[in-house]
Amino acid sequence: xxxxxxxxxxxxxxxxxxxxxxxxxxxxxxxxxxxxxxxxxxxxxxxxxxxxxxxxxxxxxxxxxxxxxxxxxxxxxxxxxxxxxxxxxxxxxxxxxxxxxxxxxxxxxxxxxxxxxxxxxxxxxxxxxxxxxxxxxxxxxxxxxxxxxxxxxxxxxxxxxxxxxxxxxxxxxxxxxxxxxxxxxxxxxxxxxxxxxxxxxxxxxxxxxxxxxxxxxxxxxxxxxxxxxxxxxxxxxxxxxxxxxxxxxxxxxxxxxxxxxxxxxxxxxxxxxxxxxxxxxxxxxxxxxxxxxxxxxxxxxxxxxxxxxxxxxxxxxxxxxxxxxxxxxxxxxxxxxxxxxxxxx
Length: 345
Description:
Number of helices: 9
Strand content: 15-25%
Order of helices and strands: HEEHEEHEEHEEEEEEHHHHH
Largest sheet: 4 strands, antiparallel
Structural class: alpha+beta
């Protein structure tokens, strides 16, 4: 539990700090007055003033905010330095900067990971890399590092042979001959059918080959991986919307639980998970839903087209609808968390 709490506070703290830093820096650079830069919500734990801005950490570590003067035109006391009085391009930059920082952060995280831990690529050797818990391979006694020699008497020379032979076995028991540190052993196991992946599995993955790229190669790999994950996330989100399904949504409870589980595997997996969450936060915040950054940006686009901002009533109704939608999504996600954690659903 302690590991989970520390890991969750660390991960969420970094993601929120980076997001709000994007808003803060661009607001300052575009001439806006920022009255407070806060991490967390609720009463202040610590705070100090530097110049015109108060910097604070608050007691509820779930989010953060920038108090930019003039966000509401009626309350603007900063004159031309108020948000509402700055050019519309400047306001667009400030609104998008938080999500942009969340999309950029993973590049630096992956860059550091590749420099520190290298780059792993799948090996074609028929050697077991990992053995999953409570799966046929573990139950039969297979271990990481075992070299698979034959499956049902058929010689195996590459990892592709392993996957194709097991696929052909269906749900029938198979005999696997392995080499373990020079000793030949024979194991018998029965693959299980995975409904989600629509194929039979025994619960093993292949080994990997780790190379140590230089700084330039690490940066290129980081950019490519970030782009690939963004593509997969957008594709997955489109699939969820198309299928009108909320079963795969995870809420705060589920994310905290996953953070704790990943943290137990070490700092590198935790940093990779942080990169994943950062991209997720950046993409979702760009959705054109009122109260999200994407909703504010959409309102600014309408203002640019109309030549004037939406009226107070229209903004109030839009933000109310957006907040209602977010609350419903959060309720669905929390329901999923509870079902997964307490009922295995």
